[in-house]
Amino acid sequence: MDRVTITEASQVAEARRRAVAAAQAIGFDETAAGRVALVVTELSTNIVKYGVPGEILVGTFEDATGSGVEILALDKGPGFSDLGSALRDGHSTGGSAGEGLGAVRRLSDAFDIASRPGTGTAVLARLSGVRPATADGSAAFGAVTVPLRGETANGDAYAVRERLDGWTAIVADGLGHGPEAAKASQEALSLFHHHRDKPPGAILSAIHAGLPQTRGGAVSVASFDRDAGILTFAGIGNVLGAVVSGAVTKRTVSLAGTAGHAARRIQEFEYPMGQDDVFVLCSDGIATGWSLDAYPGIAAAHPSLVAGLIYRDFARARDDATVLVVRGDAS
């Protein structure tokens, strides 16, 4: 994902430029790219007026709901005491070109927001090049993944394979950061796709066997069987997972080592997981003590918004950072 820090008004134009470039790169026409420009302008202006410092994250998405541009606006400002009023069309977020968050919601094909007084605001907007006639289900997963500041190559990578009976997911964190870390994590993803029909332990074993010519890294693989209500997890290193079930967060066990170089053993662990639960998988660019306790019920939100909140509140400044969120009811 591309990241723009927002601290003053001149950065609104930079956020808009990068978002439009991302849209054009995947084939958006002038009208569709114009919608992206309006949404990013509104969200960036909102941060300037009420939430500095904040961030705009721009990426692309492709899943069962479609494909397009994904935008996250994250700040730690005062938040909204009356979210309903803020979402009304015509309620300006501060003199911007459009009509505030209501306009953002109207222009977006998927929209979600979390805001509490004193904790800031997180807004998600997804836009497709061709607007669907009707909404086609909810997103099964969402993620935030950004490189260390100052780097263009991201040493983290993730993937999700959706199945009729559940899903299989991976997060790989190449050792260190920069291009060589990115090479290791991308090779891990290639091996994941090749062995994706196997159980997590077998996938992880194949990745470990296939990374010796790279730096290696931390890798975790999880698979959810919806009918059995069981999540199976295997990890090497500090890519850590958790099942969030209501107010209870159950952390998964990942064993010490470096995939591709040193792993004394690879072991699967099983955890109960319901269709209303979410699974969260984070690289070590996210503090291990992350929690969603400040946002009761947030697990029901769009998974990209959940990922954005965890990133905003718990990202470390010293490394690439990835948060992957997958829903139990994903199909």
TrEMBL record:
<dbReference type="InterPro" id="IPR003594">
    <property type="entry name" value="HATPase_dom"/>
</dbReference>
<dbReference type="InterPro" id="IPR036890">
    <property type="entry name" value="HATPase_C_sf"/>
</dbReference>
<dbReference type="InterPro" id="IPR036457">
    <property type="entry name" value="PPM-type-like_dom_sf"/>
</dbReference>
<dbReference type="Pfam" id="PF07228">
    <property type="entry name" value="SpoIIE"/>
</dbReference>
<dbReference type="GO" id="GO:0016301">
    <property type="term" value="F:kinase activity"/>
</dbReference>
<feature type="domain" description="PPM-type phosphatase">
    <location>
        <begin position="152"/>
        <end position="328"/>
    </location>
</feature>
<dbReference type="InterPro" id="IPR039248">
    <property type="entry name" value="Ptase_RsbX"/>
</dbReference>
<keyword id="KW-0418">Kinase</keyword>
<dbReference type="InterPro" id="IPR001932">
    <property type="entry name" value="PPM-type_phosphatase-like_dom"/>
</dbReference>
<keyword id="KW-0808">Transferase</keyword>
<protein>
    <submittedName>
        <fullName>Anti-sigma regulatory factor (Ser/Thr protein kinase)</fullName>
    </submittedName>
</protein>
<dbReference type="Pfam" id="PF13581">
    <property type="entry name" value="HATPase_c_2"/>
</dbReference>
